[in-house]
Amino acid sequence: MTDSRPAFTLKDLHGKAHQFDGTGPSLVCFVKEDCETCNIAAPVLQALAQAYDDKVTVLVPAQSGKANADFAQRHGLTMPVLDDADCRTSFDWGFEIVPAVYWIDESGTVAAHFEGFVRDDWKTLSDQIAQDTRQPVAQVDWDSLPAWRPGCGSKHFDPEVYDKLRAAADGDVLLARKVEVASGDDVAEFMFDQGFSDGLPLVPPTPERVMRMLAGTNRDPQDVVAVVPPNMGVGTVEKIAINAVMAGCKPEYLPVVIAAVEAVCTDEFNIHGVTATTMGAATVMVVNGPIRDKIGMNAGLGAMGAGNRANATIGRALRLVIRNIGGAKTGGVERSTLGNPMKFTMCFAENEEVSPWEPLHVERGFEPEDSVVTIFAMTGGPVHLVDQTSRRPDQIAGSLGQGLESVFLPKLHNLPVDALLVVCPEHIKTMTRDGDYSKDRLRDRIQEVTSRPLREMVQDDHSGAGISVADADKMGPEKLAQLAPKFAGKEYIHIVVAGGEAGKFSSAFHGWSTGAAGSISVSRKIDLG
């Protein structure tokens, strides 16, 4: 052979850097600890190193990470055993089998190269090194060694490793493992079989589609957006884009999905708990700001239903990220007793243009021109609140409050639990017919009309929920006569406006466990840079 090999610098077991600068005389042998043939070759390498130590640089790049030390200790190796766990050097050198042996002469030319273990090849190599260096031949008990043993496939050909190395070498921005589908296989069925799906068909995430999706953001594809519970999967921009493709998103939706992933992967939101609870909590996403019109989201007629691609696929993409990157699959960590259709998708935009109030994101401290996603953990909804006959503001507000009595159970009051109230435009018109009717006034009205004496919360023959009889006896009549509103504080009542112009039908989402032990709603500004 007359070729040369790329230079490299790798660290030994003690962290010291060793350099191969492309010149010789050098003996380089690539190994991995769990390869039986590498273990057969190791004593020969040690003998060659001892025989030619003064004249030859002997380097052993090893692919097994922490196990490299076991390999060196097992065979008493005195030459540098180098860390090539990421297999970049192995990839650059281009062999297929370990052990892979290279003898590089003084001119930097590969004078001998072979892979695996053929005893005669190793013996010839020893003789050649002795001749080239004018040293006595190494003493090796050749007769004790097998005549031939096949080597093992180099670790850099493992699919997950090879695809990343090939992509990096080609300048490819896609580093996720590529899955080859046989030409005779149905791609849609393959993705079902692999467990990628939420139960509905997926769009195949081909490299071309993923590249188009990535054009929706200026962020580097390998930026880590979040570590996604429960399995703590690394959610890079690329992996989120893959799930956005599968969900059916357009590239311009990707920044919204990224912001949503950032929001749910906070400690405050606690997506692990939201996923694992048997109560069936799910993510509900509200989008505010200019992004709504820019990507064609629906805040009006049918905003929380079918028919709008942005609403449906953005919510679904978030759920697929939680499933495929975070590992939250039904029957595993996902243990919902009945399930929840919102676990497919629930995302809509606030109808800011018909609202008389500050939109949700401004209430939460953002500027009106900001585009923001807010995520809630909800167990029920949307539940319709029907009032087609009220004509006075307090009547409509009272009806909405009475509709919220069903959160958890009508008998349970003073709940430290979020509710998301979605007020339709016709109810808004009635509520504001006499002038301003603020969100705070609506919250106060809800608390007012839902207030009940504590004695109505006591367990009885109709329901075992509520205050125990023993606790009620300790309270006494005066305490039991005190009024308890539905919610522990009006801060638990979140209000947005959405829906079509006709129809007096508002809706509500019922919360899960709100607070540090459960989930706290989180808002994130959408990066449109």
Quaternary structure state of the chains depicted: single chain
C-alpha Rg (nearest Å): 33 Å
Sheet with the most strands? 7 strands, mixed
- Please provide the count of β strands: 22
Task: Report the portion of residues in β strands.
Answer: 15-25%
Question: Helix tally?
Answer: 17
Please, what is the average pLDDT? 93
User: Structural class of the secondary elements?
Assistant: alpha+beta
Task: Tell me the helix content.
Answer: 25-40%
Give the termini distance in whole angstroms. 53 Å
Low-confidence stretches: none
Overall geometry: elongated
Walk me through the topology.
Blueprint: E1 8-11, E2 17-20, E3 26-30, H1 36-52, E4 57-62, H2 68-75, E5 81-83, H3 88-93, E6 97-98, E7 100-104, E8 110-115, E9 117-118, H4 119-133, E10 148-149, E11 152-153, H5 159-170, H6 187-193, H7 207-214, E12 224-228, E13 233-236, H8 237-247, H9 254-264, H10 271-276, E14 282-288, H11 291-294, H12 309-324, E15 347-349, H13 360-363, E16 372-386, H14 393-403, E17 419-423, H15 425-431, H16 439-449, E18 452-453, H17 469-480, E19 483-484, E20 493-497, E21 505-511, E22 522-525
Parallel strand pairs: 3-4, 4-5, 14-15, 17-20
Antiparallel strand pairs: 1-2, 3-7, 6-11, 7-8, 9-10, 12-13, 14-16, 16-21, 16-22, 17-21, 18-19
Q: How is this structure best described in words?
A:
By secondary structure, the chain is α+β, with helices and mostly antiparallel strands. The protein has 17 helices and 22 strands. The strands form 7 sheets. Strands 14, 15, 16, 17, 20, 21 and 22 form a 7-stranded mixed β-sheet that branches. Helix 8 (237-247) crosses helix 12. It is elongated, with a radius of gyration of 33 Å.
